[in-house]
Amino acid sequence: MTVQRGARNRRYAANILAGCSLVAFTCGLAACAEILGVGSEFEDIVGAFCKCEQFDNRWPNDLTGDSFYPCDDYVRARLDARPELVADWVSLFDEQGCASCQKAEACANAPPICIEQGDECITDTSCCGFDEAFPTKAYCGITDPDDPTARCTGDENFETCARGGEACEKNEDCCGATGFIAGCSPELGGRCIVLCDEVNDASCPDCCATAYLVDGTPVGVCPDSIPFTEPPACENLCEDSCPFNFACTATPFQLSEPAGAYIDVNACVGF
Question: Is 247 helix (H, G, I), strand (E, B) or coil?
Fold first, then answer.
């Protein structure tokens, strides 16, 4: 079952958790690089790099996560935007053996293909330094509470910060607090709550839930960071659609803290 979740939710809710007032989130590839053309001498390298399937749906061209730039267009654009870095990237391509799809991540994660700290972004994986083992070493977040533009950032304490569901005393204890994608919730037992969306779910891969705040605002949240007595099954999560004979329904799930409380989560329910 394909699960879709709202890309804007994490950024919006992050500012709620951090006590900020984010009212919009806009960014796009155009701010990073214009789609131009790379010289013919690089076509073979671009082709060798982009043959790898992991880059087919790597760089979304809008906030929905439903549409992606073709790899070759994206790579050419990034190379053209930073010509002073092309020679270093080509050298890295040879040194790291990025013609091999098993090794190509080294080149995807190097400038100018990746997005550097402080530059506009849509996805965590596009940021230079992104590491699946430490999802907040580099990620796409809000760097200025007065500016809703998402930019690549990272937690200095990414190795020691508290992950989703772990105990905390303040926001800064939580992985993702630097970019306002996580916060410490005393109302939920003093634990770190981690936000997610359909293109940024490294903290809970393929298991981002659409939950509802008290005022009815939907937010993307990692279920394992919420103290559910029985968490929703990842395969049953949905944003607004489900397989045939199922409906995507806001379903109450009980919390262990505070006792007796519930949070509504979108889940596929049979007719």
Answer: strand
> For every one of its 271 residues, what pLDDT tens digit does the chain have, with 9 covering 90 and above?
333 333 344 444 444 444 432 222 222 333 322 333 345 557 889 999 999 999 998 998 887 777 899 999 999 999 999 999 999 999 999 999 999 999 999 999 999 999 999 999 999 999 999 998 999 999 999 988 888 899 999 999 999 999 999 999 999 999 999 999 999 999 898 999 999 987 888 889 999 999 998 888 999 999 999 999 999 999 999 988 899 999 999 999 999 988 889 999 999 998 8
Nearest to 24 by CA among 199, 195, 142, 149: 149
Total structural domains within the chain:
2
pTM of structure: 0.76
Query: Which tokens belong to 136?
Result: 């907040």
Domain span holding position 43: 33-114
> How are the residues of the chain apportioned to helix, strand and coil, as percentages rounded to the nearest 5?
25, 25, 50
Report yes or no on 124 lying in a domain.
Answer: no
The rounded distance, in Å, linking the Cα atoms of 80 and 168 is 44
| DSSP codes, 132-194 | TTBTTSSEEEEEETTEEEEEEE--TTTTTSB-TTSB-SSGGGBTTTTTTSEEEEGGGTSEEEE
